[in-house]
Design goal:
By secondary structure, this protein is mostly beta strands. Among the domains are: about 130 residues; about 110 residues. Helix content is about 5%, strand content about 20%. The protein contains seven helices and 30 strands. The strands form four sheets. The protein has a 22-stranded mixed beta sheet. It has a four-stranded parallel beta sheet with strand order 1-2-3-4, with no helix packed on it. Strands 11-13 form a two-stranded parallel sheet. β16, α2 and β17 form a beta-alpha-beta unit. The longest helix has 10 residues. The two termini are about 40 Å apart.
Length: about 600
């Protein structure tokens, strides 16, 4: 029916996810200028599409197309063609791009493995497209003839005004000269991925505007040498605009040779972010002088030895899966040289890390240590330094050998968030929390079964959020928590306990509380009437996975409640059925109710 609207100029079918077919009669829409099929299930365009000779915008983003209609080159007015698919039935259809002179902005060319014609049967379909800014070239599958792939890539050279280039799955062994040619003065971002036959990288160092470079999944690459920096003699700094450099999934890569030349300044002088992911054989990388480096991320690079890095701006380091092949390695060595500048450290899966020298990082704001099976302490010395004023967040999880905190506690006056999770041998919280951590606002203690009590002096008075999960010994002494002395406490949740039968007792929680969570308390049978009624500021109540909780108190719940959820509590859900449950009258005043995944 739409195809009878002969004066239609704009047709937008974006996100019609079940649309699979366009009728042949779409060719009758002679006035159609704008066709948007983005995020549809279209698998094939009818050949009649080429009759839409006024079409200037064709959006095929995230469709299921695998090839273009025959003679797509007849749509000579096209300015926007987001995706071009080289089909098996017409492998030479790459030639049709030569007729589309007005293409601009973004073009993705897919299935280039289907170009089977020899390269001398067509010209350079992209070289004249001066308004094309972003180009993606994609292959899928193995190469039968590497020389053919190189010749094809030569023919795909774009105009030098390009600002973004993505090459994915290229099957040649080397790149043509144009990839990295200094004439491409506008390229800002480049990604080379899945080029598993390439044994060397193109010369990219002289791309004067390049700010972000990603190199991923080069299976055959073993070393990166000076060819990366320059192809001819130059007095300019290589990569003089680069801010982000990423290497990922490089199974054979062993080293990156530093660039050394007379009268040439720093390599990577503006580099701010360096990411190294899954490079298991990498031993050495990047210059030792990175004056602008701010963020370093290392993940699954077990052999990597990082040279001392000279930088005044480094503030964030994340290390994951480091040193696992070498027991006894001091895994902090790569970042100890940065101790005076680092603000954020995130360490995960570093099995030989025994001690984190907290005292060496005076500017540290955020510390996260996860799944470090040998971690025993947070300080090299017997006692922690006098102050850690910059520290605002500490999160330690899955560290089974961490037994206690340094003697004297953590004197971090500005710490506002502390989380201790799955530390099976940890016996206590930091000493003197009330005086040493006066700014603490959120405390989470989960799956720390050996912690028996809060420290002497109690919890900090500014605490607003307290979460306790699977800490049976700690919960056993809950009547000594003295939470009513916390004038700022707004959120409290208790999770995973088998002992409690009634909760919360009358003197346990402060009347300032606005949110209460009672979760996975297996033997809980009742809510204490006096304890719940005194919570006069309570707005939100969450009860989940308490299979033995049978009913609410006789006097009901606080009138202040505006939201309540009851999930996986079969007895209670039955009694709270709308209009007919025995406890319905006790909760019907609450505006927002969720009972057993149903909103009422």
């Amino acid at each position: 029916m739409i195809c009878t609207l002969y004066n239609l100029q704009i047709l937008i079918m974006q996100s019609c996810k079940e649309l699979e077919v366009l009728p042949d009669s779409i060719g009758k829409l002679k006035q159609l200028q704008h066709l948007d099929l983005c995020q549809t299930a279209i698998g094939m365009l009818p050949d009649s599409v080429v009759l839409l000779t006024n079409l200037y915008h064709l959006d095929l983003t995230e469709t299921k197309l695998q090839e273009m209609p025959l003679q797509i080159g007849k749509l000579t007015k096209l300015q926007c063609l987001t995706d071009f698919f080289v089909g098996k039935r017409s492998g030479s259809s790459i030639k049709d791009l030569e007729e589309l002179h007005h293409l601009r902005e973004t073009l993705r060319i897919w299935n280039l493995q289907n170009v089977v014609d020899s390269a001398d049967t067509f010209g350079s379909p992209l070289k004249s497209k001066k308004d094309l800014k972003r180009l993606e070239l994609r292959w899928d599958g193995d190469a039968d003839d590497s020389s053919h792939e190189v010749m094809l890539m030569e023919k795909l050279q774009p105009y030098v005004q390009l600002s973004s280039l993505n090459i994915d799955g290229y099957r040649g062994t080397t790149f043509p000269v144009w990839v990295g040619d200094s004439a491409f003065t506008h390229i800002v971002t480049m990604e080379l991925a899945g080029c598993k036959n390439c044994y060397c990288l193109p010369s990219l160092g002289q791309l004067v505007s390049l700010e972000k470079l990603s190199i991923k999944a080069f299976d055959s690459l073993r070393t990166i040498g000076e060819e990366l920096y320059v192809s001819t003699t130059s007095t300019e700094n290589p990569f003089r605009s680069l801010k982000t450099l990423e290497f990922e999934d490089m199974p054979e890569w062993e080293e990156l040779t530093p660039f050394v030349a007379e009268n040439v300044g720093d390599t990577f002088p503006l580099l701010e972010q360096l990411y190294l992911t899954n490079c298991p054989k990498l031993r050495q990388t990047v210059s030792s002088h990175l004056p602008s480096l701010e963020t370093l991320r290392i993940r699954d690079c077990q052999l990597l030895r990082i040279p001392s890095t000279s930088t005044d701006g480094m503030h964030s380091v994340r290390i994951t899966g480091y040193g696992s092949q070498y027991a006894g390695i001091n895994e902090m060595e790569p970042i100890n040289c940065l101790s005076t500048t680092l603000e954020e450290i995130d360490i995960e899966k570093c099995p030989s890390l025994k001690c984190f020298p907290l005292e060496l990082f005076p500017k540290l704001k955020s510390l996260s240590i996860k799944n470090c099976e040998s971690l025993e302490s947070l300080c090299n010395e017997e006692e922690i330094p006098k102050d850690l004023d910059s520290l605002t967040s500490v999160r330690i999880s899955e560290c089974p050998k961490l037994v206690s905190f340094p003697k004297g506690g953590l004197p971090a006056r500005n710490l506002n968030d502390l989380a201790l999770l799955t530390c099976s041998t940890l016996t206590c919280l930091p000493d003197s929390m009330d005086s040493h951590l006066p700014s603490l606002m959120e405390l989470t203690v989960g799956q720390c079964p050996e912690i028996e009590c809060f420290p002497e002096g109690g919890l900090p008075s500014k605490l607003q959020i307290l979460k306790i999960c699977a800490c049976d010994k700690l919960v056993a002494g809950h009547m000594q928590w003295n939470l009513q002395s916390l004038p700022s406490l707004l959120y409290f949740s208790i999770d995973s306990n088998k002992e409690l039968e009634s909760f919360p007792e009358e003197t346990l929680l402060p009347c300032t509380l606005t949110t209460l969570g009672i979760l996975s308390i297996q033997n809980l049978k009742s809510l204490d009437e006096q304890g719940i009624q005194q919570l006069s500021a309570l707005k939100e109540l969450k009860i989940s996975a308490c299979p033995n909780l049978e009913s609410f108190p006789k006097e009901g719940l606080p009138s202040s409640l505006s939201s309540m959820s009851i999930l996986r509590c079969p007895f209670l859900e039955q009694r709270c059925q709308q209009d007919k449950g025995e406890d319905w009258s006790k909760i019907s005043h609450i505006p927002n109710l969720e009972i057993g995944h149903y909103n009422i």
